[in-house]
Amino acid sequence: MALMRSVLLAASQNKWLRENAVNYPFVRRSVSRFMPGEGLDAAMEAARGLEQKKIASVFTNLGENVKDRAEALQVTNHYIEALKRVHDAGLHAEISVKLTQLGLDLSPDFCFENLDKIIAEEKKDAIVWVDMEASPYVDATLDIYKRALAKYPNVGICLQAYLYRTRKDVEALLPLRPSIRLVKGAYREPPKIAYPKKQDVDENYFSLAQTMMAEQKAGRCIRAAFGTHDVKLIRRLAEHATQRGFPKNNFEVQMLYGIQREAQERLAREGYRSGVLVAYGTYWYPWFVRRLAERPANLWFMARNLFAS
Q1: Catalytic residue numbers?
Q2: pTM
Q3: pLDDT tens per residue, range 102-158
Q4: Which of 197, 137, 192 is nearest to 164 (CA)?
Q5: How far apart are CA 302 and CA 30, in angstroms?
Q6: From CA 108, how far away is CA 192, in angstroms rounded?
Q7: Sign of CA dihedral 260, 263, 268, 272
Q8: Distances, alpha carbon 227 to alpha carbons 69, 164, 185, 224, 309, in Å
């Protein structure tokens, strides 16, 4: 599984595959499991269906490493329009943005200006989530997040449990009263900066999650969200939350659209805070392959679509 994950992560960064794989029907059929469509209309329709099951949505318009200012501004305006439509429709949906899609590679100040415009359009009781990208972007992402958090309390950050540095990052953020979404991590990172073994990642995740729950209860972490499809880990976290008197409606799990749907619905039925990341857009290839790398068992689904073509 470790070898397969490495192969998939390498494939996610391959330019030729990114430009050509999207043209194969079996690939497009496979990705449809993980995203409802390429446009915002499809995302909103999916959110309506999820809301009927008491599951919240987090929208993300796929894309990264924008090198053109006009394109970064276009993405910014898209998110502003998306928020307007979400508010007009009365949906319980938030958004999650990648800073390299807002121009981080061009200029941190330009990127912050775009993020600032987006957060200013969000309601005060909802979070604008900032995604974490590959390790070279961690420091720049945290710097911009801290600038945003100093101005807006309703902005959250994604942190990755497979990085050794993440505990220190959590500790550094807590005096600022952040909102944190914890994930395992989905990029190809060297063992000198990231845990190479799944077991170690899982244990670090659980330890970080314990800290986040305790700090949320103490009021130093505004919102703690756990982004994982690992049902055993979720059960372990839920048991810990119960033992520590953590209210069910404060225990939040965020999963991806189309993965572990039964678990998403069960959490909502049992009174936990269940959310789904609804991705859409045309730049889906690297995102899709990283999803396969997170759980290589999903490859059988892709293979079935290949043989069905």
Answers
A1: 131, 181
A2: 0.86
A3: 999 999 999 999 999 999 999 999 999 999 999 999 999 999 999 999 999 999 999
A4: 192
A5: 5
A6: 27
A7: negative
A8: 31, 18, 10, 10, 33
